[in-house]
Amino acid sequence: xxxxxxxxxxxxxxxxxxxxxxxxxxxxxxxxxxxxxxxxxxxxxxxxxxxxxxxxxxxxxxxxxxxxxxxxxxxxxxxxxxxxxxxxxxxxxxxxxxxxxxxxxxxxxxxxxxxxxxxxxxxxxxxxxxxxxxxxxxxxxxxxxxxxxxxxxxxxxxxxxxxxxxxxxxxxxxxxxxxxxxxxxxxxxxxxxxxxxxxxxxxxxxxxxxxxxxxxxxxxxxxxxxxxxxxxxxxxxxxxxxxxxxxxxxxxxxxxxxxxxxxxxxxxxxxxxxxxxxxxxxxxxxxxxxxxxxxxxxxxxxxxxxxxxxxxxxxxxxxxxxxxxxxxxxxxxxxxxxxxxxxxxxxxxxxxxxxxxxxxxxxxxxxxxxxxxxxxxxxxxxxxxxxxxxxxxxxxxxxxxxxxxxxxxxxxxxxxxxxxxxxxxxxxxxxxxxxxxxxxxxxxxxxxxxxxxxxxxxxxxxxxxxxxxxxxxxxxxxxxxxxxxxxxxxxxxxxxxxxxxx
Length: 502
Fold this sequence. Notes:
oxidoreductase activity, acting on the aldehyde or oxo group of donors, NAD or NADP as acceptor, about 40% helix, Aldehyde Dehydrogenase, Chain A, domain 2, oxidoreductase, Aldehyde Dehydrogenase, Chain A, domain 1, seven-stranded mixed beta sheet, 20 strands, Ald_DH_C, six-stranded mixed beta sheet
């Protein structure tokens, strides 16, 4: 079988930035080397955007919003551009999946299966043009005054995405922003900028108006300039809670809108009537996706003492997976994305052991893989919920089993965290699952699974963030409601573009 790395993805303009509808040279000469997570060797070099480059990108987005036709188009007109983006993503699906695997180590078969679903996100958002209430007639229950509630684009959006899942996280921001009528400055991660470059090529090919989408790869200093820039109306960010807190503070100084999808330390509750083998298999399988480098990963597994040992045995058996080259069809889990991330995982596992936890499987680098950033799926037992390993987001294939007395204590443990992004309840009784879910403080709670499908609202409470991405709730975050008072002379609702019912 030929080495898939012999067929590199062709990025048309890696030495340039996509600004105002054109590929332009950066002001400086710095660049980022992108490293293959499996081999540890560079395979792509892209231009690094500096402060002057960011200024040009923001200025282009501002002009496109203030003076361009984009925000004034009807949603149905913008929807046609989203459908063209969807077609472009499908046409470049192989490139996008290959980039995701090389940059982050995600198993290629999984990446290849997900890209078409991500293309469908643009189509689904395009469909919202016909169903979402962009303009709604309203009447005051107090005064009887009639008005129109108009939902208008928030303005220029700074979209900042991390390295672990660039395409899904770009899509969850770009699709609603564009449908809403916003213009966007997309700041890609230096570790994984490839998908953003491909999307810029697609935007150029479909004739997206100049300035509507601008793409730069930049470091944290430039990202902070984007957050501070008064010409940017909203920041949409996915990343660490520490970075999210900084963004929230800076945005708050000028009342910029934010959507912040941040870290998690998600709990899975395995109730006493659950099928332990199925729960263990589900949770171990989820741990393999992106080697646990996802914010919603189930990393605290809470089970009663009566079933603790049996569950740990089932989890250990399920954690026996094949590590290796993510392009190999037989591989079940690839490497971590960077050497720095593997070092973080090792440090936190060591801290867990020092604080009394026992490693029952994994906990080390696989001896047969001497290149890349591999780390074995790891399960720790005897974990105290107050310990470092139970309270810190590891962002790797590490799960902690926490023993509790009963269901009430399980829910208390689940809620005893500064995070509240994701959770799950494993039980044979849907009514019991719903009752438990209502007591868990989390943005999402799954029933015998790790989370719902794309298109559902996703986001966190507490330190896991602000706002939601996905579905109508996600679109609403890119719109500002405006009340236009129309009471007075008679008017024809249909003639001024209002629904005639509702």
